Amino acid sequence: DAGEPGVPNIPLRLFQNGIQRGQTTTNSTGEYAFSTGLLPNTAYEVRVNTSDLPPGLVLTRRAQGTDRNLDSDATQ
């Protein structure tokens, strides 16, 4: 969200149909990209291990908010 700081140095894994297709780490501003071998119009899932989060941070609860296109689908 606007004004919300990103979290640096978080390992992320990319999955398609339960198979890991890539991995990366967030940069100093919390941004990330998976740039190799991605197919258009294909569903992917980004996973983060909660043990990789800094102390005091937790994932946003699933399906919060009124707009399903904007809410989090994170699971713990």
Descriptive overview:
The structure is a single chain. The chain has 76 residues and is an all-beta fold. The chain is 0% helix and 21% strand. The chain has strands spanning 11-16, 19-25, 45-47. A three-stranded antiparallel sheet has the order 2-1-3, with no helix packed on it. A hairpin with a 2-residue loop joins strand 1 and strand 2 (19-25). The radius of gyration is 13 Å and the shape is globular. The two termini are 21 Å apart.
Supply Rg. 13 Å
Q: Can you tell me the residue ranges where pLDDT is under 50 for at least 5 consecutive residues?
A: none
Strand content: 15-25%
Number of helices: 0
Distance between the first and last residues' Cα:
21 Å
The gross shape turns out to be globular
What's the helical proportion of residues? Answer: under 10%
Structural class: mainly beta
Q: Average pLDDT, to the nearest integer?
A: 86
Number of DSSP-assigned strands: 3
Index terms:
single chain; 76 residues; mainly beta; 3 strands
Nutshell version of this structure?
The protein is mainly beta and 76 residues long. 0% of the residues lie in helices and 21% in strands. The two termini are 21 Å apart.
